[in-house]
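ARCHIVE CARD
CATEGORY: sequence design from structure
SOURCE FIELD: tokenized fold
FIELD CONTENT:
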């Protein structure tokens, strides 16, 4: 039976929270980029668990872009909360390096861009998590 009390009638359904979207997105994008690069640890592990088929550009590029979208969604949400634009700017620089290394640049330069882009993106995520933990939640405006 449904409880018809006022508290259940007025409560809105809970939306999915982007609380850890920045971290999950950054790790997903770094994984996809490093897999495209052919990082031995990742490629070997995927082969050992029978998922070597995952190492295709047709799968990894969309995964990388989707992960970056999730990461930036979380970073923008947190920027509104703590007011610092630094993690978002740093993540954008890391994302540009990551995408450039995977798609546009080849050879040793690509490895450098992918590795540095992954490190920068993960550093931006750590910075954002620290800001999120030290900031106070925004005050809600009173209802009229």
């Amino acid at each position: 039976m449904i409880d018809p009390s006022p508290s259940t009638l007025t409560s809105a359904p809970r939306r999915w929270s982007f609380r850890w979207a920045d971290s999950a997105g950054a790790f997903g994008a770094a994984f996809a980029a490093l897999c495209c690069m052919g990082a031995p640890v990742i490629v070997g592990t995927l082969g050992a668990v029978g998922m070597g088929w995952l190492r295709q550009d047709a799968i990894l590029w969309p995964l990388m872009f989707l992960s970056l979208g999730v990461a930036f969604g979380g970073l923008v949400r947190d920027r509104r909360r703590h007011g610092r634009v630094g993690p978002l700017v740093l993540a954008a620089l890391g994302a540009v390096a990551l995408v450039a290394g995977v798609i546009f640049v080849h050879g040793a330069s690509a490895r450098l861009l992918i590795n540095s882009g992954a490190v920068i993106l993960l550093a931006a995520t750590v910075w954002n998590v620290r800001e999120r933990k030290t900031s106070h939640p925004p005050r809600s405006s009173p209802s009229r």
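CARD ANNOTATION: Confidence is low (pLDDT under 50) at residues 7-12. Helices lie at 6-10, 21-37, 40-48, 57-82, 86-104, 108-134.
SHELF: design records, drawer C
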